[in-house]
Amino acid sequence: MNANQLNPGDTAVISGFKSEIKSKVRLMEMGLLPGTIIRIIKQAPFSGAIEIKVRDYYLSLRPEDIGNITVQTQE
Amino acid sequence: MNSLPKEWIVLAGNPNTGKTAIFNLLTGLHQKVSNYPGITVEKKFGIIDLLDEKSIHILDLPGSYSLTSETFDEHVVSDEIFSWIRGENKPNLILSVVDVENLSRNLYFTSQLLDIGIPVIVVLNMMDQIQKSTLPVSVEQLKERLGAIDVVPVSAIENQGIDRLKDSIITNLNSPMKPNDKDIPFEITGILRSAIRPLFQFFTEEMKYSSRFAWAQSVRIISRKEVIKFYESGNSDNFSLNKEKLIEFKKIHSDVQKNLNRNTQDLSTLEPQLRYRWIDGILRKKENLVDLSRKSKSEKADKILTHKLWGPFIFIGILYLIFQSVFSWAVLPMNWVNNTVAKFGNWVYTAMPEHIIRDLVVEGVIGGVGAVLVFMPQIIFLVLFMAIMEDTGYMARIAFMMDRLMSKVGLHGRSVLPLMTGYACAIPGIMATRTIVSWKERLVTILILPLMSCSARLPVYALMIGAFIPPVRFFGIIDAQGLTMVMMYFLGTVTALILAVIFSRWIKMQGKSTFIMEMPPYRIPLMRSVFRQVYLRVKQFVTDAGKIILVISVVLWILASFPKIDNSQNINTSYAGKIGKVIEPIIRPLGFDWKIGLGLLTSFAAREVLVSTMATIYNVESDDENVIRLTDALQQDKNPDTGKPAYTVLTGISIMVFFVFAAQCMATFAVVRRETNTWRWPLFMIFYMTGLAYIMSFIVYQGGLFLGFG
Fold first, then answer.
1. Chain A: nearest CA to B148, how far in angstroms?
2. What's the number of CA atoms in the CB half-sphere (13 Å) around residue B186?
3. Residue A24 and residue B269: Cβ atoms within 8 Å?
């Protein structure tokens, strides 16, 4: 599934990136690699950016970008 | 940069690691900071006094996540670092600052620094935030596994470990890299290794890179094709290859790429994959088994502070608080400055013998400079609030909350910080746009930024409001003077956003727009750092603006005082009067007379000069030996033809509206020229802002007259 389908509080493991994603290398340099766990924190007001926790820090991304990250949920 | 001493060191690290705090602790006040305080966007040098009475230069690099640059700031950093690879002027040591709470991502950049071949001291900052026992590896193990020359735990907030860091700098300053240091940065195995070997050989043989850096650069260039541009001529003189070599190099690159494409899925992920595998190995972490459920204190605080509903309300409340306090709390110290200047003027008047020089000093210098000094308390308050919002981490939350709205008008979440900095001063604001990745969004932000009312407009607004807006209250709570002030800021801001929409449609430029922003933990701001920012801004105001104001005040006094006819002076027949009357017809439709016209001319250098200009004119004009109060003078001034008051509420508003829009601060346009690298944009800004100012003032004044005001 795509990471934008996750709800606040959900955790999932990154499985890959869609080809349309922008700044893929930068996301990976920031530590978002296939196999990395992310947790969705919240969406900003006005249906804005989405905040996630990854490794030991918090990061925010636009919904359209986060929709290009594919994930697998953990049971 | 050219006169660098033989021994120098460098401070590098990710954004939000407390790098600047460490720089400040190491150097104290021995800094050659750029004129513009705020965010670290320029090269900053400092001098560290080491314990053995030796001192050494240190360069503070802007925060970066990676050597392959995305933002302008990172570009500065990678350019600097690549200049060491071949250049002679290498630093002796690199201090790599990492946030110990967030090790793996911070160590990514550190791992790139370790490849360069300059000894690296890893500075583990924020030790106060964690228990040492919770570190995944011991400090000793970390040093060993990273191959750093030292690892020093510090806490910049608690001022712990700085002496230990200085000791380490002394010990390691001249230690050469050991020859047996790993010649390979991370595990490059089997097929990959043989596939990229041709690139590696080119780098070691043609470019004379060290083995380790050659491997790292080979992997990097496979991951990011754009790194090739670096070696093309016209980019960076030190590295450009001649034509034949470049063709050979590109051939090798594409061969290697083809070769690899047969085996590997996605080459762009190569460098990050390899480095993180290495880092996770060092930290003995399995990234797919980490527990992310712990909620940090900041996350809990954000439940309210960036809440869908409460977040924006709190933001608006904070803005309101800032502007109210700038206007009401600052009144007391302002009165004090005002009285002190007046007393000082009187004292000089009585102490000096009667002479034309006395008139110059009292009327020109003290009257002119004093009139602007009065507004210092307001500027201090404004810059103080901006610094606190930046240092606490709240600014990042504003960007987070506002990105959606900002992107609707063609801007970016990261435009918010520069635009808000613009409330203090456009110059650091324009420089802070360097963190916006897309050039189009950055350009639009720059173009509209001077419409944010900066602190230099404050003296003008405050003077006009004090003179013409009555201190009444509506419904017992809303203060008319405060409301007028807020309206001026609102007018500038809203117009800026409307123009952003227009400009971003008009400028045809492709640019990928992404929003990847770290949300740093909330921190209690270091008061030392906040006050330093305030101090630097005020110092700049007093020295830079002060010099301009002083010169203009003196010149203006001379123009306003001569020629003396029958030994008595009449400002109407003075040179200044004549100049003013030449331009009067142009500005008459806006409700301005020749005195304000003179003020508009002089305020082209800096906006606040309007105030000192008016002060000088009235001081020359009055027979009173005391330094007069400008608000009184404005209220009492009479139109010589009609005998009615020269200025009305409507004139006051028209002047303020003019100042909201007018292009007046030449320093701003010089900075825009530097940042955009062409005169086209600054000229465009001067043109549109001046036009807008004239039209808006015209509408306000003529509309007001038509409706029967004034």
1. 21
2. 24
3. yes
∠ Cα B61 B62 B64 (to 5°)? 110
What tokens does B331 get? Answer: 């009144």
**Distance from the Cα of residue B402 to its chain's centroid:** 19
Cβ B455 vs Cβ B544: under 8 Å: no
Name all domains of chain B by residue range, CATH numbers in brackets: 8-172 (3.40.50.300), 190-289 (no CATH), 536-706 (no CATH)
Give the range of the structural domain holding residue A22, as residue numbers without chain letter. Answer: 3-73
- Looking at chain B from residue 459 to 518, which residues have their Cβ under 8 Å from any Cβ of chain A? 512-518
The separation between CA B467 and the C-alpha centre of its own chain, rounded to angstroms, equals 33
**Residue that has been written with the tokens 């996605």 in this structure:** B266
* Average pLDDT, integer, range B644-663: 91
Cβ contact B269:A28 at 8 Å: yes
Residues of B in contact with A11 (CB under 8 A): 292-293
Q: Domain holding A65: CATH number?
A: 2.30.30.90
Q: How many domains does chain A fold into?
A: 1
Distance from C-alpha of B574 to C-alpha of B597, rounded to nearest angstrom: 15
Residue ranges of E strands in B100-167: 120-125, 150-153
State the amino acid at position B496 in one-letter form.
A
pLDDT digits (tens, 9 = 90+) for B473-482: 877 777 888 8
A62 contacts on B by Cβ (under 8 Å): 403, 407, 514-515
The ipTM of this complex is 0.95
Q: Is B78 helix (H, G, I), strand (E, B) or coil?
A: helix
Task: Yes or no: say if B547 and B606 are a contact pair by the CB < 8 Å rule.
Answer: no
pLDDT tens-digit map of B178-231: 544 667 777 787 788 888 899 999 998 888 888 889 999 999 998 888 788 778
